[in-house]
Amino acid sequence: MYFDKAEVLDRSELEKLQAERLRKTIEQAANSPYYRESFKKNNIDSSIIKTVDDIKRLPFTTKDDLRSQYPYGLLTKPLDEFVRLHASSGTTGTPTAVFYTQKDLDTWADLMARSMYAVGVRRSDVLQNMSGYGLFTGGLGIHYGSERLGCLTVPAGAGNTKRQIKLIRDFNVTALHIIPSFALYFAGKVREEGYDPAEMPWKIALIGAEPHTEHTRQKIEELLHIKAYNSYGLSEMNGPGVAFECTEQKGMHVWEDSYIAEVIDPETGEHVAEGEIGELVMTTLTREGMPIIRYRTRDLTRFVPGKCKCGRTSRRIDRIVGRADDMLIIKGVNIYPMQIEKIVMAMPEVGQNYVIELFREGFIDQIKVKVEIKDQFFVEDMRVLQGLQKRIAAKLRDEILVTPRVELVQRNSIPKSEGKAQRVIDLREVEN
Length: 432
Fold this sequence. Notes:
Rossmann fold, GMP Synthetase, Chain A, domain 3, 2 domains, 9-stranded mixed sheet, 4-stranded antiparallel sheet, 21 strands, AMP-dep_Lig_C, nucleotide binding
């Protein structure tokens, strides 16, 4: 059973459709100031695309390119034709913003409905969205996909486990959208409240937003007595729904009628052999308001070789195994160490050194920032130090959207490296 006939197109038909849509995407992108200049500089127009392989003739787009065009440099239509935007976190640095026309939102909702259908969610299901709403794309992406599929949708949002459990029981919720680390935490809380997960109404969990291992997925399924399905998305490509598992759980199908996926060597930019790990590069094919071409995601993955038993013909990517840059993902939020540095180093009480520690408390990933304080501010009055600690934590929360633990230490307490400073220390247990 398939939601859309595009899921089972013959490969030759699919690649012909991709080439056609890529040509249209180039023509549309040329209406934006950024791509108009880029295409002129590189002598590019849609006529160079004969087959989908010709995408290699196009230049990459990077996160820095998006930031340089903030806020409107990638738009292909007048501003009054857009109905929504999503943006990355951050108040001090330049964020990235993604704009959507109504047609873009409709296309995104269709892809999300297709994704959910692929793992067994049906119109008769009740879906509880346990993800944050707002500028983060995950919450609204799943929400509109669920409604497009016809599910009764419960917009519970993140946190508040007792309320989540009550809603699930009261409304006989059969499908959950939940980030992996919270799913593990939630399983323990369900038992603490006196409920047996095996007797809860849920059947399906949609998990994503943060990298996780197969071991984590199996643990979620075991603890919650549920089938958990992995997904991949990023705001630059709309949000969730770029790639999704099917019930086979052997890789995530990229919806190739809407995206072109490439896996490249991060150093050379050349394609790697199928099955080899490299950096994922994505191109939109159906977004009209803000198309993005050959976007370097910095996510490391591989194409899963062979055909999927489900019958879908789109290629599959494996779970994300790491990053080609220094981005951290904590509680589903993307955080760059430089965001933290900008905040702590701008405070007059802070000395020369700091370190970011990642650790796991229960099943939840946490972040701690250890900060050296100048001698004159490291006083014996605990109220003063606690006040400073709270101020730093609040400023960091405003910047990275996650509240870190802040530890104040004396000058020269943090070991110094002879070479490049080690700013991030990962203390989380390595999962097998």
